[in-house]
Amino acid sequence: MSKVEIIGAPQSTYVRVVRIVAHEKGVDYDLRPAGPHTPEVDAIHPFGRIPVMRHGDVALCEAKAIVEYLDGAFPGPSLKPADALARAKVEQWISLINTGYDPVLVRKYLLAYVFPGTPDGKPDRARIDAVVPEVMRRLGELDRATGSGHLVGETFTLADAFLIPILHYLDTMPESGAAMAKLPALDAYFQRHAARSSVKATVPPPAGRAAT
Ligand SMILES: N[C@@H](CCC(=O)N[C@@H](CS)C(=O)NCC(=O)O)C(=O)O
Description:
Layout: E1 4-7, H1 13-25, E2 29-32, H2 39-42, E3 52-55, E4 58-61, H3 63-73, H4 84-114, H5 125-145, H6 158-170, H7 174-181, H8 184-194, H9 197-200
Parallel strand pairs: 1-2
Antiparallel strand pairs: 1-3, 3-4
Helix pairs in contact: 1-3, 1-6, 4-5, 4-6, 5-7, 5-8
Bound molecules: glutathione.
């Protein structure tokens, strides 16, 4: 069958999730850089969001669906635990990240730096200051959740693949970076996974020209 094509901007946290999983599985793929709402993305995603994927006749959108396909259709270590409860916890974490952590940490906080929409292009201080207390609460929760070194169980799962790209950017921002350095479990978790070959191989270029 033809090679997997991952379509989307490498700066995007969700594109990186899919790429990390492809590397973990040993899936040979081409990355085709494309922003949201471009023709190749709109052809697959009804809302024009990245990432999207092609593999021969298969076309998929939504990061969770794509990583399920990569994990299930290719050999290599499964990124989902065998145990039913542990699998449910992986699902639980991905849902929490998609519905609670990403909206606050990426959409409200990080994008106020990266795509501020201010007249002078400087970070939107009002939006940042308003969301910082919520960012601190979310980081505290993640510190309590990552004490074992993984979000679920004792191996790297899809849940970790969804969180690491967000932490990468948070580590570089003033308020969240300073907070992470003082949260020992979260800091150790991030450093540990930053050293994985799948994570090192997918470090994004500087943000700013494509959607995070
Ligand atoms: N639910 C989607 C979210 C993907 C997403 O939000 N992608 C961002 C870039 S990280 C995007 O395409 N934003 C443009 C938009 O929402 O219009 C998924 O899991 O793949």
